[in-house]
Amino acid sequence: MNGVGVLTALLGGLISFVSPCVLPLVPPYLCYIGGVSLSELEEAGPETAATRGVVRAAFGFVAGFTTVFVALGATASVIGRTVSAYAGTLTVIGGILVVLMGLHFIGVFRFAFLNREARLHVRDVEPGLVGAYLLGLAFAFGWTPCIGPVLAAILGIAGTSDTVGEGAALLAVYSLGLGVPFVAAALFAPLFLNWLRRFKRFLPVVEKGMGAFLVLTGILFMTGELAQVSYWMLEAFPGLATLG
């Protein structure tokens, strides 16, 4: 697993967090998993019991979706080795699909199915660590299509990994990019809520940035230049080699 792949996965996780159908719903999720109201979340300081409860639940939530994503990464690497004989064709097809999804988010054209938010809801789950973990599992399984295109691009990279461990590790890094901001939002909830109110007007720009990221990734897939970019970045920034 090279440093460029690690950075791509980490960036993908961060992009997923600030995507327009994830970021605005972070406060309600924090309230639900922590068993607090929005007003309590706004007034909670870093050392209060309410904040400690929300942070514990946030770790449970992150552990839940990380479990699923890591399993998907391991599976992707296994499938990638199994279908290696068709790697060229599948890479081009996958690249085209990623580019099309990117153009959707940029606004060149729109796919109706990508405008729906298919969420798997967990009912009767009590707030707390266990409930948060279950909700994290549901988030990973059912929250499509918003994080789906970015996740698909990272899974495509995982599919080229040499070992199951590398594929799983790549998705662990993706989960880190998505999970660290979530835990930080729980720890500094009042600051996060104030920032979110100001940031909401930039969400359309974020959506287009996410589209550009996908288009670039798809083109690199199709042209086989992803490895060349990795080599170039490792030559330009030797420190990246220590990340993998």
Number of strands: 0
Element pattern in H and E: HHHHHHHHHHH
Principal-axes shape call:
globular
- Kindly report the average pLDDT value: 75
Structure description:
This protein has one domain. It is 72% helix and 0% strand. By secondary structure, the chain is mostly helical. It has helices at 3-17, 26-34, 38-43, 49-82, 87-106, 129-142, 148-158, 164-187, 189-199, 203-223, 226-236. The chain has eleven helices and no strands.
Core attributes:
244 residues, mainly alpha, 11 helices, globular
What is the strand and helix layout of this fold?
Layout: H1 3-17, H2 26-34, H3 38-43, H4 49-82, H5 87-106, H6 129-142, H7 148-158, H8 164-187, H9 189-199, H10 203-223, H11 226-236
Please outline what is shown here.
With 244 residues, the chain is mostly helical.
